User: Which sequence fits this backbone?
């Protein structure tokens, strides 16, 4: 237990409740816990974290493109420490459940996942897209690794002079 | 009475920030509102992936013109954590110093905007004049008024000399004196009270529910401040108070910011006295990782969070930024509902949305085909001469 008492306790508690759904749980340092979760149980975990464990602030969701999988890092905080929940979804048909039922403030972060990574968020209420412009092609997702500016703006074939060599 | 839907923005009467609000009105009262963002999306995160870690500091500094130091500090702490770099204590102290000076300039700027929005333009002129004192301090330390460029991976780029310390303390004394006046004015002046009390209400539980951060949350009695909750840099060595207020309205947000100014002055004095001797930076290899890190920073507007993933090359695999204003927008539509159209600019401005400002004028002379760059002194001299021609003499001011 020692110096990571709080983190060890959280780890043991979550592993007991979610068992096989949680993998790769690591305590990076004091106040930083990372783990991976199967997407189906995401809303359930969020609810537990918020109501019972005091992690009542979803700071943001950082999406990622990991090749075969797309996904998101959900950074939760109880004001002192940050717990990052990583969920993955296959690139061929990417979709994740919404967490707006638990954290209403997550709406813009989820729209970011939809727009920039093309991950469909199941259960997200219809609304205006964010952050891309209204006339941006719907099937283009800029933060995917294989996306290039020239896919949407063909006239910008060469990188601007400010780009790093 | 029939309902009417009006769009407000993205080109604004209220803000210099492109954001669109759809307001549903019944008479003058707002019955529904929606915030539409994204007009300022510049693809910074994608651009960051194409640049080296060092070049990204330059890019990330330009996310915001006001909290530029907040973003770079948050970003470099992530990079340093992945690289396992030990930042010297003196560098941490200098980062904290610039961070607090930045908070002072940002809060004074906000106070001016608030004065402007409530129709109290004298307050705007006073605070922006006094803000020059802190901008001078920042210019003294970094050479710049807005983008300080003080951070580098592994430390800071400029040291603080004893001469600079004296100059900062001199200006701090003026600011402390002036802020006493603002505290009195903010809490007693009839105009301020009439325009801010019970305007833009955000109850405590709604602030928590919608994830509000910074002074916006603290005015709803949410005791959250990253500097206290998860101290970074040298905040664990500083003695300061967490300011909250319980009125949940624009008045509360004003009081929180003004009292935070006082705390910042306290901290700046402590940092200047503390400044340990030693190097200001360590060398960090260009290729970093693999690894990932997530860190938070209490920017003037609230919690700023950065996530960086490195893959062993000199460029980040992913860099994610969530600025405080983003976390506060969901609360704005709540604050607007049930309020009046006339209060809209006040309420929106009260979360202190970001905007950029610039310095120094470049004059292009068409006759000689030359560009002349004016510094502050020359610009002032030029201004005085111009007005003298019109018969007004400002040279004694």
Assistant:
């Amino acid at each position: 237990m020692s110096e990571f008492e709080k983190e060890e306790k959280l780890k043991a508690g979550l592993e007991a409740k979610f068992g096989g759904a949680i993998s790769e749980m690591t305590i990076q340092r004091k106040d930083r816990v990372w783990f991976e979760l199967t997407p189906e149980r995401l809303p359930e975990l969020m609810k537990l974290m918020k109501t019972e464990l005091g992690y009542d602030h979803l700071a943001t969701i950082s999406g990622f493109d990991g090749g075969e999988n797309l996904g998101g890092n959900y950074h939760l905080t109880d004001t002192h420490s940050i717990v990052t929940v990583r969920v993955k979804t296959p690139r061929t048909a990417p979709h994740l459940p919404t967490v707006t039922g638990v954290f209403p403030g997550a709406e813009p972060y989820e729209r970011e996942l939809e727009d920039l990574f093309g991950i469909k968020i199941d259960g997200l209420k219809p609304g205006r897209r964010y952050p891309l412009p209204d006339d941006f092609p719907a099937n283009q997702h800029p933060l995917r690794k294989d996306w290039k500016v020239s896919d949407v703006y063909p006239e910008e074939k060469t990188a601007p002079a400010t780009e790093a060599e | 009475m029939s309902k009417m839907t009006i769009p407000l923005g993205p080109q604004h009467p209220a803000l210099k920030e492109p954001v669109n609000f759809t307001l549903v009105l019944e008479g003058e009262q707002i019955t529904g509102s929606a915030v539409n963002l994204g007009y300022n999306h510049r693809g910074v995160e994608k651009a960051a992936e194409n640049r080296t870690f060092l070049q990204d500091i330059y890019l990330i500094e330009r996310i915001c013109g006001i909290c530029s130091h907040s973003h770079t500090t948050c970003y470099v702490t992530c990079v340093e954590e992945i690289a396992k770099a030990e930042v010297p204590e003196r560098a941490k102290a200098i980062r904290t110093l610039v961070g607090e000076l930045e908070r002072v300039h940002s809060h004074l700027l906000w106070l001016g905007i608030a004065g402007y929005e409530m129709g109290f333009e004298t307050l705007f002129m006073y605070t922006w004049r006094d803000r020059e004192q802190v901008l001078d301090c920042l210019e003294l330390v970094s050479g710049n008024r807005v983008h300080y460029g003080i951070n580098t991976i592994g430390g800071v780029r400029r040291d603080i000399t004893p001469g600079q310390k004296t100059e900062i303390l001199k200006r701090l004394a003026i600011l402390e004196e002036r802020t006493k006046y603002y505290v009195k004015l903010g809490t007693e002046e009839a105009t301020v009270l009439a325009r801010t009390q019970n305007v833009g209400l955000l109850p405590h539980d709604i602030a928590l529910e919608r994830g509000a951060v910074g002074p916006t949350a603290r005015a709803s009695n949410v005791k959250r401040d990253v500097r206290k909750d998860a101290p970074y840099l040298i905040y664990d060595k500083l003695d300061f108070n967490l300011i909250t207020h319980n009125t949940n309205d624009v008045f509360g947000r004003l009081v929180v910011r003004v009292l935070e100014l006082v705390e910042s002055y306290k901290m700046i004095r402590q940092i200047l006295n503390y400044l340990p001797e030693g190097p200001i930076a360590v060398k960090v290899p260009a290729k970093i990782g693999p690894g990932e890190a997530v860190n938070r920073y209490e920017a003037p507007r609230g919690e700023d969070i950065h996530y960086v993933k490195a893959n062993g090359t000199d460029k980040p695999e992913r860099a994610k930024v969530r600025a405080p204003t983003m976390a506060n927008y969901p609360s704005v539509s709540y604050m607007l509902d049930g309020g009046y159209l006339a209060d809209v600019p006040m309420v929106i401005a009260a979360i202190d949305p970001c905007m950029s400002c610039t310095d120094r004028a470049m004059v292009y002379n068409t006759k000689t085909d030359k560009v002349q760059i004016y510094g502050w002194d020359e610009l002032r001299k030029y201004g005085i001469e111009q007005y003298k021609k019109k018969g007004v003499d400002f040279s004694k001011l």
Remarks:
- The interface with chain B takes residues 28, 31-32, 34, 56-60, 62-65, 73, 75, 77, 79-82, 84, 103-109, 116, 128-133, 142-143, 159, 163-164 of chain A (CB under 8 Å).
